[in-house]
Amino acid sequence: MPLDPGFDDRANDVHLNAIVRSGEVLGRDIVEVAAFLDDLERTAQAQLGHIKAAHEAAAAVAAANESVQGAADRVTGSAEETMEAVSGSAQLLRDTSEKSRNVANWVRSVDSRLADVVSTLQAVQESNAQIVGIAKQVNILAINAKIEAVRAGDAGRGFAVVAEAVNQLSQQSATAAATISEAISGLHDTITTFQAEAGESSRDAAAVLDAATETDQRLGQMTGSVEVTRAAALDIASRAADVRTANDRFTPCFGELIDTTRRTAEGVKDARGQVEGLVRQGESVVQNSVLAGGAHADAALIEFVRDAAGRIGGMFEKAVEAGRIRAETLFDASYTPIPNTDPQQVMAPFTALTDRLLPDVQEPALELDPRIVFCAAVDRNGYLPTHNLKYSHPQGDDPVWNAANCRNRRIFDDRVGLRAGQSKDPFLIQVYRRDMGGGNFALMKDLSAPISVRGRHWGGLRLAYRF
Asked: Full-prediction pTM beyond 0.85?
């Protein structure tokens, strides 16, 4: 039976369509794997940072512990020296206290003896006073005897001689008694003064003994405190030695853990690079299959992007021809930062032109399909001068809000943005995850087509829509 002549063509179409569908599914899965590897690499890098920080902290702990142990050793040595000094001082004070006590007792005995001397001097003074009194009476008797002797005449001459001798004796006794009284009075004053000074010395000696006793008690307390300090320092030194032993055990583990984590991160990075190559190959398979005639579910969008990119190129050419902008200016990639913007926004020499021309092409694209998120042109460096109006609000004070709502005049030089701006293929479909904030991601397709001006590649038109 002859074969249907159109069978091969229909079979080829079926195979191409299957390749397109499989390529997109494969691309989606590879993007998910790439996202997982990205997360894994970030986690590994974060863990590596934490491990390094822990290693540094352990080293700091070890260094601090060495300082603590050194300080504890110094405190222990100082406490022992202080203990010896305090003990010596206490013994010296005790010896001094004993001598002071003997001196105080002697001073007290002197004070007591002086009191006896004063009492004796008072008795002598009283006896001397009696002598003076007797001398006065004898003197009176002598005078009376002389008078009677004179009256007796020659018969009383012998008695007169005796009376004169008695008179002289009484006068000498009175003079001697006066001298003794004067001497005793001076001696009494001197001894009284000496007794008063001895009393003060006795009180001072008692105060010295009391102070010595209190000082001895304080030295005893100090000795106890120094002993406690020494024991605490010894305990600290012992514990520091335990910490050093523990550090010596686990510090080498950090080095091994750092090396293992670093190798893991590098392996993940290498795998991520390989997956990136698979993503591009998957995208190339889909693109080539569609160009070969395979049916794509987004064929209408592909056609729109290619047509819209061509229209934008034509609008740029007309602007150059009309003298509204020079060709060199249109391709000038010198970006000027806009002050006080976060995220950073920049101006290019052609931004004013794109603000006038691009909205007429980009805004209607949002109505083509409910899955479409944005439509915007970028230059070869991923610079997006003019975004959709809903993403072109003036910046406020919140960088997070700005990042979501002020996306115009920014450079998106990530993998998807750069490839969209640099690809010269008829169209390019990329699959990626879009960060929606709060740890949420949406799987997206980025469909782009090149924009050329007079045969010179300017950039690309991006159409992003949900998968």
From this structure: no
